[in-house]
Amino acid sequence: xxxxxxxxxxxxxxxxxxxxxxxGQPQAEIYIKAxxxxxxxxxxxxxxxCKTPVDLQRVAAEQSDKMSICRTTSMAxxxxxxxxxxxxxxxxACFQNI
Length: 98
Description:
Number of strands: 0
Helix content: 55-70%
Radius of gyration: 13 Å
Largest sheet: none
Structural class: mainly alpha
Strand content: under 5%
Shape: elongated
């Protein structure tokens, strides 16, 4: 099980913002949990790579390819990167062409 660098609440928010139809659905929690398990390793890799801009850009691109298997995970991942790029901790240039 991947280490929790990012809370379930944050990941769930990314998922629900990417697919608003999930909220309030009877079986949504099972689906959200599955999507969370797909997203967490990618988000963890990006967070770990934040120490080095060159690594961050490479890792972000690699993980973006992996997240493209599902529309919701792809959108949630891109939303995460957009939020990260807006922070003062990461140079926005790290996410160009992703």
